[in-house]
Each structure stands twice: as structure tokens, then as C-alpha cells.
């Protein structure tokens, strides 16, 4: 399968032509330069299959650790393969959103430092805290609209995180104080099971109530004041 993508802005996506060969090797041509990316050996996909590799020219993605593997908006079913934790060399941004994936996120993914993660709009379950960590450099994490269930208060966030979307899950606990230290440009923790006072500081009060509403018992600005015991 060969497809072409063109950018709407010279700061977003460069024109990229790619061909999936042997269900495991991606041969890409970018501005006349031919490159290849080998996927984990156990990964296989149905045919026909839409596979996109997007190059963000603003961050020189073709040579830096910023290339992105888009498997989103297909009809993928089943669980995420453990082999997705076996990428070698530059680790991609991994986009699996808008599919029908189920089961738990493989522990092997916790060993990698993805540039961006988008697993939104699937049926994933269990603990996603393995995707976070103080030694990671992930900037964007979107886990929204799944069935994930873990204690947010115990998550150790990477300082690089600028966008976090976990809305519409079963996440519980409280919002940790260390989130005030993040330079967040986007945040959505709505429609979960969070409780307690929203910490004051950082960017947390710069977001409106819709960022936090429809939780079990969150309180404090920008929501209503916490009730005194």
C-alpha cells in the first residue's frame, strides 16, 4: 500500500510516501531520501491496512527521536502486542487511537521512552501508570475513553509532560501535588473516580471546571470549594 500525505503548514507534516513491505519493514521516501524502519518481528496486520508515518518538520523528526507511527483509525482488535516494547533505536510516537483494542497495556511498553502516546478511544483495561516515570521524556499522553483503572496519586510523572488526557476512564485516587510542577498546556481528568482537593499551583488553576468535573469527589478551584469536615 502506498499513500501520500501533505502538510497544511510547513511547521507540521512534510510530504511523505511510504510502502509497507513484508508486513514488517516500512520503506519511506522523504524529500528524495529513502529510509527504512523495521517493526517488531511478531507484529502482523490485516490487509488492506492503513499505515501512516508522519514527519513533524518543526522538530526535525526524520533525524531526531520524533518520528511517529500511526495505526489509529483502523479496525484493529485484540490486545497490544508485547513486541511493541521491542522497538530498537529511536522510539516513535505511538498512535493507536480510534480502534477496538482491548486487554491490558503490555508491561514491555514501560521500558521505552515514547515521544508521544495516544491510545484513546479503545477498550483498554487495567494499569497505565507504567507509561509514566521521572526518567522519561514523553510530552503527550492521551489515554481518554478507555476502561483504565489505577491510582493517579501514585503516578510519578515525567517533568517533560505538557499534555495529559485521561478523561472517561475508571481512574481513582487524588491529583498529586507534584502535578503543580508540570508545564501543562492541556489537561483533562474528567469523568473518572477521583477525590480530594485539587492542588493549588502551577498550571492547575489555569484550566476551567470541565477539566475536572464528573469525578467522585474532587473539590477546590476551579471546582466548588471543599466542604469542611
TrEMBL record:
**Major location category of this protein:** other
Instruction: Spell out the InterPro entries in the cross-references.
Output: Leu-rich_rpt, LRR_dom_sf, PGIP
Q: One Pfam family this chain carries?
A: LRR_1
Q: Which residues form the signal peptide?
A: 1-29
Give the subcellular location. Cell envelope
What are the UniProt keywords, alphabetically?
A: Signal
Q: Which domain of life is it from?
A: Eukaryota
**Gene3D superfamilies cross-referenced by the UniProt entry:** Ribonuclease Inhibitor
**In its UniProt entry, what is this protein called?**
Leucine-rich repeat-containing N-terminal plant-type domain-containing protein
Taxonomic source organism: Hevea brasiliensis (Para rubber tree)
Instruction: Give the organism's phylogenetic lineage.
Output: Eukaryota, Viridiplantae, Streptophyta, Embryophyta, Tracheophyta
Amino acid at each position: 500500500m502506498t499513500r501520500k500525505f501533505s502538510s497544511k503548514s510547513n511547521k507540521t507534516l512534510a510530504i511523505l510516501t511510504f510502502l509497507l513491505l513484508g508486513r514488517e519493514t516500512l520503506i519511506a521516501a522523504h524529500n528524495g531520501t529513502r529510509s527504512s524502519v523495521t517493526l517488531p518481528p511478531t507484529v502482523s496486520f490485516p490487509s488492506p491496512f492503513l499505515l501512516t508515518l508522519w514527519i513533524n518538520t518543526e522538530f526535525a523528526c526524520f533525524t531526531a527521536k520524533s518520528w511517529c507511527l500511526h495505526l489509529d483509525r483502523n479496525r484493529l482488535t485484540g490486545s497490544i502486542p508485547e513486541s511493541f516494547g521491542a522497538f530498537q533505536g529511536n522510539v516513535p510516537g505511538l498512535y493507536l487511537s480510534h480502534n477496538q483494542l482491548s486487554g491490558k497495556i503490555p508491561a514491555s511498553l514501560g521500558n521505552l521512552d515514547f515521544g508521544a502516546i495516544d491510545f484513546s478511544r479503545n477498550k483498554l483495561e487495567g494499569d497505565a501508570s507504567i507509561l509514566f516515570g521521572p526518567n522519561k521524556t514523553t510530552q503527550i499522553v492521551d489515554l481518554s475513553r478507555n476502561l483504565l483503572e489505577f491510582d493517579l496519586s501514585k503516578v510519578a510523572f515525567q517533568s517533560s509532560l505538557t499534555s495529559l488526557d485521561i478523561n472517561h476512564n475508571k481512574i481513582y485516587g487524588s491529583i498529586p501535588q507534584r502535578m503543580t510542577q508540570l508545564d501543562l498546556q492541556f489537561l483533562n481528568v474528567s469523568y473518572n473516580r477521583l477525590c480530594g482537593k485539587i492542588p493549588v499551583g502551577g498550571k492547575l488553576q489555569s484550566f476551567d471546571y470541565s477539566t475536572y468535573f464528573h469525578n467522585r469527589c474532587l473539590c477546590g478551584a476551579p471546582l466548588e470549594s471543599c466542604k469542611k469536615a
